[in-house]
Amino acid sequence: MTEEEFSDINGNTISLDCQSHSEFCKEFTVSVPKLSLRKVMNYTCAVWLTAYAVFFATDNTNVLSAAIIVTLVGMMLHLHFVKIDHESMLIIGSLGIQISASYASGRESTSFIEMSKVKDIVINEAIYMQRVIYYLCILLKEPSDPGGVGAVVPLFQVKRSKHFAHNNRNVVIVMQYKTLYTLFSHGFTGMLTVLYLCLFQSSKPRLNCLEEVYKSCQDILGQS
Amino acid sequence: MGRRKGEGQKGPIPDSFLDFAAMNLKEVPRKQNVCMVSDFFYPNMGGVESHIYQLSQCLIERGHKVIIVTHAYGNRKGIRYLTNGLKVYYLPLKVMYNQSTSTTVFHSLPLLRYIFVRERITIVHSHSSFSSMAHDSLFHAKTMGLHTVFTDHSLFGFADVSSVLTNKLLTVSLCDTNHIICVSFTSKENTVLRGAVNPEIVSVIPNAVDPTDFTPNPSKRDENKITIVVVSRLVYRKGIDLLGGIIPELCQKYPDLQFLIGGEGPKRLVLEEVREKYQLHDRVRLLGALEHKDVRNVLVQGHIFLNTSLTEAFCMAIVEGASCGLQVVSTRVGGIPEVLPEDLIILCEPTVKSLCEGLEMVIAKHRAGSLPPPAAIHNRVYDRVAKEVVLPMDARLNRLMSRCGPVAGCIFSLFAVLDFLLLVFLRWLVPDSNIDIAVDATGVRGAWRRMSTPPNTCTNTGYDSNYDVARDLNHTQ
């Protein structure tokens, strides 16, 4: 079991915990630092000051009550649906991949993908908001066409971001050595049609962290 | 630009887009990271699109790293790869009119900056004056202190409203661009007038010359003889009468000389007469009309390329000849002196005597073996641009104010300052160190191409070393 420090795309520190249960079974956990008190204070202050300014101008006390409700409900929703404590991925060769995320409120969401459906795990890049980022994703097999790539499952995806400027049908893989090597060595020049599933979508680790996970996953996928 | 003027005075050639090639022959060519920006790219079809694609492929072959940035076409957005790992960014920017994105000057800065940083771009090359994205990227690149090149693909009028506006935009956008490339001399004239730019920083590089099509092949030459190649239409303007005078004179002097003449035209009669008269059937071969694809096969058979034009705006033929590694002898007319550097061309007056002298000089040189090796002749606009200094902010503002008129100058100076402030803000928000360096997958040095050994063994090593190179570059920068 090793724990390493990495940073996410915003420069915040995150830690990657690699647990090797056996040769065919590894677990990766990305832990995000807890919600900092300063951040909570800042947001609360911002909402309250605005509310007070509006109250000062309109003399309507409902504004202040609304501000309190907005702060409380907003924080609850944030903790329950947005803020993630850790995301983990358990890969068991020949069995499947389990992806889970636990939220700050204690809620957990887990999903499992059978190995027979998994085509490969790759690192892809996409335009996200005003950035271009790398992310890890699982390629799924198309049931009708076992040779081709059917779907891509972004690993550790807890919320499917609408801001991603890629589309499910046309993702071009950056670092899928085996597949791309094969494609390029056969003179492949066109687009790859794939479906995908993103990993670590909430914690958004940087490339060096993704590589670490990618390599270990490839070791297991290669064995099975 | 002062440097350029100084250079011009030293040599007899005023300005040529190839003179730096000679300068750089001994230096190790520096690999550039070029970013092509245009609103127009595949799947849209047209001249600009194919020009960008082919230019990128040629640059990749020469070892540069090239990426293309364009806006999203319908469902096609995100990042794609084309042949040879040519990366294309389809940015999700709104299309306003005629496949051109809207110009708000600032809105594309965050994404473009992110791309320039992660791809370690050194030169931004924008295409087409219709494309607002191209102008935006030039603007941002200059703010970021990157080198800029602009290629103009179209001609404009001066009278109607739309061209007045576009011309103003062009003036603003070009006044501090490092280098401008036009596709023809007409286009150069047009751009210089429209954009009020210094003609010295404008190069003419016709789309049609593909250096990979015209590569030297010395093995095709007959080394027992000296072959002079002429490829041109056989018309009066091309000075075929001069050629008719040169052939007998030189053939008498040099028994091992032969002529290879490609082309067709009314003046073919003159050459046939000369051939009859002096009995030179075995030494003067008239090939007739040549198809474009056959031109190279003819060119590589020769040692010397002769051009006898009486008037010429831009001689494509001599560029093709030089590109095939031939020593070029040409008349000093029109735009020809601009086309090639001094050591690649011998310029003569358009008379039989002068041309004969020029040819004799080359023949003597050839016998002495002092001609440069064919493979060493290349052109590199980028190397030249990379050596130029990007204007610092204050100089840039001065230039904007002085070149673009009082109103537009002030407005765009303000824009330039705002752009800079926005950049400072973005650098604070997302520091450069937080941006992952993109995997370089272009060309032979690309990440994927390193997998030429069995994939299993180098899944890790191949990629890692490449990534480390990128990281090292990051540190040195």
UniProtKB/TrEMBL annotation, chain A:
InterPro entries: PIG-H, PIGH-H_dom. Pathway: Glycolipid biosynthesis; glycosylphosphatidylinositol-anchor biosynthesis. Pfam families: PIG-H. GO terms for molecular function: glycosyltransferase activity. Keywords: Glycosyltransferase, Membrane, Transferase, Transmembrane, Transmembrane helix. Belongs to the PIGH family. This is Phosphatidylinositol N-acetylglucosaminyltransferase subunit H. It comes from Acipenser ruthenus.
From TrEMBL, chain B:
Residues 216-362 form the Glycosyl transferase family domain. InterPro entries: Glyco_trans_1, PIG-A/GPI3, PIGA_GPI_anchor_biosynthesis. It catalyses: a 1,2-diacyl-sn-glycero-3-phospho-(1D-myo-inositol) + UDP-N-acetyl-alpha-D-glucosamine = a 6-(N-acetyl-alpha-D-glucosaminyl)-1-(1,2-diacyl-sn-glycero-3-phospho)-1D-myo-inositol + UDP + H(+). Gene3D superfamilies: Glycogen Phosphorylase B. GO terms for cellular component: glycosylphosphatidylinositol-N-acetylglucosaminyltransferase (GPI-GnT) complex. Its EC number is 2.4.1.198. GO terms for biological process: GPI anchor biosynthetic process. It is an enzyme of class 2 (transferase). Pathway: Glycolipid biosynthesis; glycosylphosphatidylinositol-anchor biosynthesis. GO terms for molecular function: phosphatidylinositol N-acetylglucosaminyltransferase activity. Keywords: Endoplasmic reticulum, Glycosyltransferase, GPI-anchor biosynthesis, Lipid metabolism, Membrane, Phosphoprotein, Transferase, Transmembrane, Transmembrane helix. Belongs to the glycosyltransferase group 1 family. Glycosyltransferase 4 subfamily. Catalytic subunit of the glycosylphosphatidylinositol-N-acetylglucosaminyltransferase (GPI-GnT) complex that catalyzes the transfer of N-acetylglucosamine from UDP-N-acetylglucosamine to phosphatidylinositol and participates in the first step of GPI biosynthesis. This is Phosphatidylinositol N-acetylglucosaminyltransferase subunit A.
